[in-house]
Amino acid sequence: MIVVHGYGSNSEEMEAFIKIFHADGYNVLAPDNQSFGGSGGKYIGYGVKDATNLEKWARVMNSDHPGGELGLFGTSMGASAVMYSLPKMPSNVKFAIEDSGYASVEGELGGQLKRLFNIPSFPLVPTVNLYVKTLAKYNMNDGNTKKTLKHNQIPLFIIHGDADKFVPVKNAYENYRNDAGPKQIWIIKGAGHIESRSQDPDTYTQKVTDFAQQYFK
């Protein structure tokens, strides 16, 4: 398993999720995303750069452990990184689980501007993207599940709380609609951002491990 943390977090804070997979017998790699934890990098990848790095980690795992199978799990920005990475993932990635991921970087930033400051996304978000392309060397427009999931055939489990104010639950439904492959969605009533596991740990663990076991040999 490769487990990916969200914005403002790091791999150490993913302990509760890592334990779910360890307890089910899986080895887990939990890297720090660019500019978080022990990772270098000056600019936050917002899931876009992290998707590229995640694909590289998958290939490193395959090089170190040839013949193995991989599953992906991410929360928040890490969940988006997982979904953005799927088009370039090697064939031994058997499934992906995303918890509280946003459909698009621009949509998430625009939503936060509206929620926090009551200002429209235009022209600020496109202007920010110009700086991102110049300084951080990536395009926020590439972070969009309309692009990355439209031909996806890797099974995807979408988890989201319907009380999420940071990444509204509409993102889960958008990701579900955008995904072309085998998929499952679970919306948890009353759960906020990345609160689904803490609200009902037993059910969360059961659903996540049941999904993984469908696709791991």
Structure characterization notes:
The chain has helices spanning 15-23, 48-64, 77-85, 105-117, 124-136, 145-148, 170-178, 196-199, 201-215; strands spanning 2-4, 70-75, 93-99, 156-161, 183-188. The protein starts with a strand and ends with a helix. Helix 2 packs across helix 3 (77-85). The chain is built from 9 helices and 5 strands; from the N terminus they run E-H-H-E-H-E-H-H-H-E-H-E-H-H. A 5-stranded parallel β-sheet has the order 1-2-3-4-5, with helices on both faces. With 217 residues, the protein is of the alpha/beta class.
Give the CATH superfamily: Alpha/Beta hydrolase fold, catalytic domain
Q: State the CATH topology.
A: Rossmann fold
Give the biggest sheet: 5 strands, parallel
Percent of sequence in beta strands: 5-15%
Strand order in the largest sheet: 1-2-3-4-5
Helicity range? 40-55%
Order of helices and strands: EHHEHEHHHEHEHH
Mean pLDDT: 96
Could you give the distance between the termini? 14 Å
The helix-and-strand class reads alpha/beta
Shape: globular
Number of helices: 9
CATH class bucket: Alpha Beta
Assembly type of the chains comes to: single chain
Q: How many β-strand stretches? A: 5
The low-confidence runs, each spanning 5 or more residues with pLDDT under 50, are none
- Judging by the overall fold, what is the CATH architecture? 3-Layer(aba) Sandwich
Number of domains: 1
Task: Tell me the Rg in angstroms.
Answer: 16 Å
Which short descriptors sum up this protein?
9 helices; 217 residues; Rossmann fold; five-stranded parallel sheet; 13% strand; globular; alpha/beta
